[in-house]
Amino acid sequence: MQKRFFYLNGHPYVFLSTTGHGAKGATEEAALAFDRLNQELRKLGGSIEDVVRTTVFTRNQECRPAISEVRRKTFAQTARPASSSIIVHDFSPGDTLIEIDATAFLSQGEKYRKKGHEFDPPRTYIKAVELDDVLFVSGQTGRGEDIEAQTTDCCNHISETLAELGFSWGNLLLLSCYVRKVEWFDLVYQTTDGSLGIVDYKTDEMFGRSLADAAAPHVDQIGAYVLAVERTTGREVTQAWLVFARPLAAGAAGEFRVEDLEQAKKRAEDTALALLGPQT
Length: 280
Known about the structure:
Blueprint: E1 2-8, E2 11-19, H1 25-43, E3 51-58, H2 64-74, E4 82-87, E5 98-105, E6 114-117, E7 128-131, E8 134-137, H3 147-164, E9 187-190, E10 196-202, H4 211-215, H5 219-233, E11 237-244, E12 254-257, H6 261-276
Parallel strand pairs: 3-4, 10-11
Antiparallel strand pairs: 1-2, 2-5, 3-5, 6-7, 7-8, 9-10, 11-12
Helix pairs in contact: 1-2, 5-6
């Protein structure tokens, strides 16, 4: 289980992350994940009732009703935490359906005021939860044709909630944003030995660079693509090519083969771990 301690507005909190891996089906996975969170919080002198916010990652839309029901039962005796729900198609291990990130107040037996704010009419999740002088707002999904419109929509909803509950953007301590970034490569093919190969086309301006120099910034990306294909298909990728559409100095399109795929994969994984930061 991932675990990080931090202070928010002078109060001690803990961030926990766990999965439902090992159970069968969405309902059992959700119950197992919440139980794991409860056990860890008890070790820290608290309980599941100290959770003020959850972010639930699910493999598909079908998992969400099961999670909502388990969450309702888990927090039957206290205000439900603020929440966000995000669909992620690629989990590790591959048969995992649910992952839950939770933020909890480290009460250690200390009394505190926790108040939930429901929607009208009520929804499967709450609008916000207030713990003493800190407000945790449930996630908002933006609507609109582009990222600017969607971001504006999200911010407008958050503004309305803050104003309704007596807060403003000036009180903001932390804002988390999840942006869907769609990446794709152009071709996957089967080699003569039955393994797979991938091709990614690039339209970079060459500016007189050599083929190797033009390819260098994209090698880590190829490593990530190779990992994604191998974990999705269960088959080995033995060939990976970058094809540059713009002409080189000689006037021909350039094809660059990434020879050391193991190194490219490792660099992609190291980059991802560095972005996540230190884990305890």
